[in-house]
């Protein structure tokens, strides 16, 4: 290794790291990966190597402090001019009671973006994800062997299940968002629907770029294809069970609309 390379690496280690200006807080299985990938293509974006850092949710990581958190992001560019960094951790929304106060305290002024999806479709998508972890070299322990019907029955009956297998609870957005509304200024909390991201990605990205005070970005057909991040399911959602779940979520959706002050287009029926 040449002395020039050594100097460059040393400088990168001691150079301060960027602080995120944007957090994609959720929801799980609602297009966060697609949105992260789109924003990463912005000419001023400097994304971290890992999409989901889970810092404000993970007590052990949080105990390491903000210096550790910043180290997970790129160094401040030598010729920084409006560059921004960000991350996407869906656990922040689901664990809002824990995460929202921490985010408000440690990242004042950060823009929190939530993408919400049809609660039934989101729950079914999450179950499919954990169902497909069977035999996975890294995530096999998270595998859920139950049918979706059984998973729903277990949760509605209040049976003890791991937090990551509580598919219905993760779709209860009103209480989660209420925690962020109590901690984050309204101008720093942006809520969109999965359908907005899917149908109008350029408009959604323009809204986020405007909130970040950066130039809007062009979105071509390939970049704006949310479906490119979707894994097709081998199991299909039973219509009778779906209808039952839509009835279950009706009060929750009413609470969400009241909280937001408008009706967010979520349902994919």
What attributes does this structure have?
alpha/beta, 12 helices, 44% helix
Describe the structure.
The chain has a single domain, classed as 3-Layer(aba) Sandwich (Rossmann fold). The chain is an alpha/beta fold and 269 residues long. The protein has helices spanning 3-14, 32-40, 59-62, 66-71, 91-94, 96-106, 119-131, 148-156, 173-183, 194-199, 201-212, 239-260; strands at residues 22-26, 86-88, 111-116, 189-193. 44% of the residues lie in helices and 7% in strands. The radius of gyration is 20 Å and the shape is globular. The mean pLDDT is 92. A four-stranded parallel β-sheet has the order 2-1-3-4, sandwiched between helices.
Tell me the count of domains.
1
In the CATH hierarchy, the architecture is 3-Layer(aba) Sandwich
Distance between the termini: 59 Å
**What fold name goes in the CATH topology slot?**
Rossmann fold
**What class do helices, strands and sheet pairing give?**
alpha/beta
* Regions with little confidence, pLDDT below 50 for 5+ residues: none
- Our count of helices gives 12
Question: If strands are numbered along the chain, what order do they take across the biggest sheet?
Answer: 2-1-3-4
Strand content is 5-15%
What string, H for helix and E for strand, traces the elements in order? HEHHHEHHEHHHEHHH
CATH superfamily descriptor: P-loop containing nucleotide triphosphate hydrolases
